[in-house]
Amino acid sequence: MKSINSIDLKTAVSHIKQVCDDSREANERLPFFFLVGAGISHPPIPLAAEIEKNCMAVAHKYGRGSEPADKRPIDT
Question: Cα–Cα distance between 72 and 76 in angstroms, integer?
């Protein structure tokens, strides 16, 4: 069975930021990401809402906490 690669939150946020920065520099549409979590897992992993909350906390830490103008779930 193929093993699942995992990365920590800091690395994940860094990867997402890099993709967004590259898209802006190339005047491309900004990408979107699916944040998924499992309801039952061992070891426990956070659900999507908790992952989003953690990512927002890191964004605020680096002064990138402004909310999107559109409040649709896909834009958060």
Answer: 7
SS3 37: coil
Side-chain half-sphere CA neighbours of 13 within 13 A: 16
> Residue 35 in contact with residue 51, Cβ under 8 Å?
yes
| Residue reference for tokens 């193929």 | 2
Average confidence (pLDDT) over 68-74: 71
Q: What does pTM read for this prediction?
A: 0.42
Q: What is the mean pLDDT of residues 45-66?
A: 84
Enter the tokens of residue 51: 């992952």
Q: Do residues 13 and 58 lie in contact, with contact meaning Cβ atoms separated by under 8 Å? A: yes
